[in-house]
Design goal:
The protein is of the alpha/beta class and 305 residues long. The protein has ten helices and 16 strands. A seven-stranded mixed sheet has the order 3-2-1-4-7-6-10, with helices on both faces. It starts with a strand and ends in a 15-residue tail after the last helix.
Length: 305
């Protein structure tokens, strides 16, 4: 069967359940079409567990494998923090995914704490033949000061095999090698700030318009969220495709807490979405333990604002 869409993400064993929730939700939402997810395992333990699970259409790349492909990453690894190094890897992972699957038309980076509720097909229809596609933060008025972290969110970043897209991807990768730190300097911020300059410099970037994507605390105020007659979540009258669950933290007792404004959590769709996601994470914990594959509890950060 030919690959319809190629996606990639990264996480370690602390983020394993969220990464698996992404994989399962994306796979379910994409049917009947095929979606392949390339996972960069950021720890040996994560790599071991994923290979033990041997999940269909989930391809594992080890951190060592990526570093062997691009030895200059080791120099970057020595001069920045762990989270900054992980940010550095984003464009290199996209490039590695395209090399791993030469028949794929394009590759899309997804943050590992995304959760899909419906098919991404409307996004591909919107993107059409565009060389690249990014999603903006879409900051609501109360979060306008967050624009210093970049116009675009590193959470949906598509690059096809066209010359312009590959040139832009290589430019981004080289920039991240040179400077990728967890602080704001001018337009720079981690891997994320460069995307504003990339769009300006290279063009050919489609900015996604669909309302029901990358839903997060900082943009919920822009949306009318409601259930349709089939009890499916809707955003501005269209089905919610994916949510960005970046404000969910694990507690010492093993439970989860969504650290959002109370008025947002009081919204029925928001409350439902986070509760459903927590249920999925708890079920994954149980299944992993039943397979003799318990994972650490933790709140490692792999995404930006």
């Amino acid at each position: 069967m030919a690959i319809i869409e190629l996606y990639c993400t990264y996480f370690d064993h602390n983020y394993l359940r969220k990464g698996l929730a992404l994989y399962l939700s994306l796979r379910r939402a994409s049917k009947p079409e095929r979606a392949v997810l390339v996972v960069l395992a950021l720890s040996e333990r994560c790599e071991h567990i994923l290979k033990r699970l041997s999940l269909p259409d989930l391809e594992v790349i080890s951190l060592k494998q990526l570093e062997d492909q691009e030895p200059r990453l080791l120099q970057a690894k020595s001069n920045r923090s762990t989270i900054e190094y992980f940010f550095t890897l984003t464009p290199w992972l996209i490039s590695a995914a395209l090399k791993q699957f030469p028949d794929a038309r394009r590759a899309t980076y997804l943050d590992s704490d995304l959760y899909f509720f419906n098919s991404p097909k409307p996004l591909w229809d919107e993107i059409s033949s565009s060389a690249m596609a990014f999603v903006e933060h879409r900051f609501s008025a109360g979060y306008a000061d967050k624009i210093i972290f970049g116009k675009f969110n590193v959470s949906w970043n598509s690059f096809d095999r066209s010359n312009i897209a590959q040139e832009a991807l290589q430019w981004w990768a080289e920039k991240c090698l040179q400077w990728c730190y967890d602080r704001v300097e001018g337009e720079k911020f981690a891997d994320q700030g460069y995307l504003t300059q990339l769009e300006r410099q290279f063009g050919n970037v489609h900015v996604l318009k669909y309302p029901g994507i990358n839903i997060a605390e900082y943009n919920i105020d822009n949306l009318v969220l409601e259930f349709n007659e089939c009890k499916q979540p809707m955003a501005n009258g269209l089905p919610v495709i994916y949510w960005h669950m970046h404000c969910l933290f694990e507690q010492p007792d093993g439970g989860y807490k969504a650290v959002l404004r109370e008025d947002l959590l009081a919204k029925p769709v928001v409350n439902w979405a986070y509760n459903l996601y927590v249920q999925r994470l708890n079920l994954l914990s149980y299944k992993l333990q039943s397979l003799g594959l318990p994972v650490d509890r933790g709140n490692a950060r792999y995404g930006n604002v």
